[in-house]
Amino acid sequence: MTRVLRGAVVAVVLCTLVFGLAYPLLLTGFAQAFFSGKANGSLVKVDGRVVGSKLVAQGFTSPRYFHPRPSATAPAYNAGATTFANLGPTNPDLAKAVRQQARAILKLERPYNPGLTIGDIPVDAVTTSGSGIDPHISPANARLQAARVASVRGLSQQRVLDLVDKHTDGRGLGFLGEPGVNVLELNLALDRETPA
Amino acid sequence: MGQGTVQILVYTVVLLLLAYPLGAYMAWVYSDRFRAPRWMAAPERAFLRVVGAGSGEQDWKSYAKTALGFMGVFAVLLYLLLRLQGHLPLNPDGMKGVLPHISMNTTASFITNTNWQYYGGEFTMSYLSQMVGLAVQNFVSAALGMAVLVAVVRGFARRSRSELGNFWVDLYRSLVYILLPLALVVGAILISQGVVQTFNGHATAHTLQGATQTIARGPAASQIAIKQLGTNGGGFFNSNSAVPFENPTGFSNFIEALCILLIPAAQVFMFGRMIGLRRQAWPIIGAMVAMFVIGVALLFPAEQHGSQVLRNSGVNITQGHGQSGGNMADKEVRFGIADTALWATATTDASNGSVNGGHDALTATGGAVPIVNIFTGEVIFGGVGSGLYGMFFYVLIAVFVAGLMVGRTPEYVGKKIEAREIKLAAVGALFVPTMVLVLTAISVVTGHGLASIFNSGAHGFSEALYTYDSQSNNNGSAFAGYGATEFSALAGTITLWLGRFVPLIAALAIGGSLAQKRAVPPSAGTLRTDGLTFGVLIVGVIVLTAGLMIFPALSLGPIVEALS
Questions:
Q1: For chain B, which terminus, N or C, has the lower number of CB atoms within 10 Å?
Q2: What's the domain range around B525?
Q3: B529 within a domain of the structure (yes/no)
Q4: Interface of B with A in 334-373 (CB under 8 A)
């Protein structure tokens, strides 16, 4: 048994060096050499200042902006502590959260979108995402918000919808996953169009 | 649903197309015919010398002893690393030492290839702990399972011998010739998609509305590549592969999901080659594919149909017109329903346990699929190594049942299956499910256990069931609302260790026993085990054994929930 344990200790040291250090260092070297922007978090800079990450939702509340999906992190859109909401499918708290979110959306959008009903709200707009920092909203969700953003910014609705299309990430290889509108990139494009 | 169905079909076909050649490669790597190029052979010889591997092969007891000793040493060191990380380097965000009960659970969890996580990576673990502690285990625990499987398979292949191979040789070859090259390729692909891989600490952003946002990052791609390939599943970030930094695109999702089942599927083809009877692989892989497809076919429509709460809320959950619709709670837009359903099935068929959406928020029917998948002992592809050696328990029971029906001594691939093998197979197949039920029962009748439950009612029962199901079977996915208390962490630790050791030792003992037998030439009375009938029989045995054991528990959890 001592021979086994001695061998085990040596193997542990070797495995740690190879798989714990050399392997991640090798991949980090590759990443930093060829994909440094992505490997460091797809950060987005405006005038040299980091304003966010393409892959991380941030809390937009102003009517000038498209809004991301609800987030279960504390505080919301906390990119340092991702989490699910973990509310089960029959949980009354889920019903309450969905109801409140739907009511808030109707209140916000109706002035620009008369006749809007709860049946027009796409489900991703009232449910928390898996990560709490889902950078995308569904195209349906974006179309719902387009009238408001266009009106507040004094842009034509068509122009806003064009920007939505332009910032929709399509499916991988044309068929993998679902299309999603990148909220941060869309809002940045809007700010370039009509600065505050 | 059409679009999603196409993705799932493409996934299944690509999986089998990749697994077949990989299986052939693996059979060659583990065989005596394998000759590495000189520059690769020298490090292997040096490794074997310094660990004192000796030149000979080992019988099953010696093989098991070496494997367990290796695990034990690693466990002690990993525990110390987690406790002391606050005083160690590579800790740019200043993480403190991990609490004792969380450290114990995490140690057991990673050594046993489970990766159950009672912690959130980005706010608990230093980069050193992630890389040197956890990511190393992702390689080593996977390689250990692969090595044990190869030893068991040699038991089927060999005649009148007692040796099953040399643990150190099998471990080295699994690590260096199989896992490492695959992980490098997959890691590079993931980085190209936007998975982070950096030693810089968190980034600080000044958002468009003037707030400050802290963005956690780190060397994630290297860990994710191996966590998927090695059926480990432990996330770099708390929300695992739902986090865009772990899984940023539909394409990265496809690759990661493929990696979940790739090696387990390849090992079935490897088995066929190693015993020199390639056709024997087909009923097994057929049974696995069939049960996988049944799982997705239940889970996907259930999620697309949406949960009760969402249907009653009046919001639009209909697919189409720019949304995937359905139960989007705790799911990501870029994956939608189909990819999340596919992943949830694959990750619980295998002992992977990574998630790209929250399982606690799955519908009642949707949530029952992972529970049952795991409860089979993860033999639907299963963990790397552990999946197929777990499947052998059911295969031997199937052979035995068929033997009883036709009144002949059961045989499998030229070996007589006798009382000893059947006893061991029964222990291997039944011990873990029994432990799941006992622990779940204890956790829902004691105050200590109830403290962990997050959702009330039937769903709360499902949370407890899922927790012990997942840890006992070394899966690692969770109904994540279930909380970490000292009781749940320690109860989990026990199930983690036993869930790994008992089947592993039973499988090696079967291998050892079979290796010593002489070959029996097939006769007119031999049951054919290479055709469709036998595949159906395997599925039947799994349904009867695991299905009947889980049914009462299912009816207290998901079934009540679905009917309420």
A1: C
A2: 383-563
A3: yes
A4: 334-336, 339-340, 355-358, 360-364, 367
